[in-house]
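Sequence in, structure out. First:
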Amino acid sequence: MSTPDAAVVARGVTVRRGPHLALDDVSATVPRGSITGLLGPSGCGKSTLMRAIVGTQSHVDGTLTVLGLPAGVRALRSRVGYVTQAASVYADLTVRENITYFARLQGNSSGVDDALAAVDLTGVARQRAANLSGGQLRRVSIASALVGAPELLILDEPTVGLDPVLRADLWQRFRRLADDGTTLLVSSHVMDEADHCDGLILLRDGRLVATTTADEMRVRTGCSSLDAAFLDLITHGGDAA
């Protein structure tokens, strides 16, 4: 079941790998035009849920709709951008050549300059990817997803390993994208990043702990630290409604 103001609606989503439940009856909604944080410890099921939304995860039970359609259908391929943890970059090509390649795959070669500018890569557009820093490579991957002007952008741990300055800059750019109407689902295991998000989906051991906001977490637990608030929710039980 989908709603007009929801980009993603998950109802009872379960993914089993042998005897292990990677996701256990997860229900949550990602509103359109927002930044939703998918937070929790490493191995809690964040990447599995993202792959399910994109349509690349097998053995998914439950109901999962994306932009009003069943997750993974062909009609969503040009409407959903996905950035994995590992940089999706061809080292022997320049930054511009990388983004142009992905633009041609999506039939939108006119969007290359906009994608470069969106993540501040215009100044290094002629450099080979092999010569870039880790943070710049992450930006190339994001630009490659942006070049198709997706309605929904899914980012799996986009700031992992980056210094605080680069992390802050990326979050500012994510906010501008959301302000322009793009829906972002961003995973992280760093609880402090919750403050950059409009809403939060908190996972632990494949289960939904809560759907909430950073401010609601603080008020509900009485903890000023988001790490402490998350631990409190785990200890005393999260309201997953």
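Second:
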Amino acid sequence: MQGSVKERIRNNARDKQGKIRQKIKVYDVYYRYTDIATGRLKNTVKRGFLTKKEAEVFLLEINEQQQKGIFCQPQVILVKTFLDDWLNTYVKINVRKSTYYGYKRIIEHHLIPHLGGFELKKLTAVDIDRLYAYLLQKGRVDGKGGLTAKSVQYTHRVLNEALEHAVKKKLIYYNPVKGITTIPKPKPFNGNIYTADEILKLLTIVKDSMYEVPVALAAICGLRRGECLGLKEKDISFEEKTINIVRQLADVNNKTIISEPKSTNGIRLISAPDEVFAILEQHIKKNHYYKQLLGKEYDDQGWIVCRNDGKWIRPILFSKNFANLIKRNRLKKIRFHDLRHSCASLMLNSGVPMKIVSQILGHSSIGITADLYTHVLQENKKDAAKNVGDMLFGRDKE
């Protein structure tokens, strides 16, 4: 094997777990390569491997690449160059379109402007700590203050995923994100929800309107906004009393697109009360009436929630109009998505097992359901404790 591995001691360096050590052994790889421009041999070194095995594997790969004529000269890679390449060669082909644009927005607005000029292998945890602190104080693109902790946490997740990719590709040998101290922690979600009576009142208000179906599906069946708007007639089985969730409408980069549900578990078959199917059936009949009335001018793509001419409704406009509806009728202020939370709370309070609730909602894991509805579970625990006490000590429940 051409080249050598040399051991040395680094002071106040991080180990593989990201902990600072006063002294730590590291390994440097020394090797030679032919400069393409001059044809001369050059000596170089790759420093800082945390184990001897990693250093030897790297040297072996360098030797094999040179023998096969596929060796690339050592080069300085900027964070900007790496993130652009990762976004277009990995993210773009491995995630949903809406997720890709979310990553793209974070990289272009928050990561590249502040870290893009750094050399990738010299990026440190201190640099990242400073970035997060800045974003929390002054990170808004419009210059009007800082980002929320949740927005900075999304940035943190994207950067961590990107740098883990760089580690796997051996562009760096340690992910500096592991050593940061300012990971933002958003406050637990505590949105407004509607009680059963408030849901019934809302359903009365929206009866026979374009809002009736989505309100019923969100508040009674737990569907997301995009899933309500993406439902088609062929997804409904009136015989089996089931609804097949296989797509959603989403606003991405100022355009409405059809995509799969949020996660693989989002593709699901759910049941619903007879009252929901009665609402669906009535609304489908209404759509057929407009189809017959408008003839060729009706854009028949099978949407259930649609405009009178059959065309889909943009999710962003639906939410704005729903907010106006709530305000106009002087109802308790909620977002449309809060109807889904209301449904989950009603199910849990009525004794539906957590696993079943998670499956109905289409969460990717039961842990997500538990984290979102901790407050409901806490109340259920209190009720459970009281019930056990009543049974053991013969308390009068009246």
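Remark: The first helix runs from residue 52 to 68.
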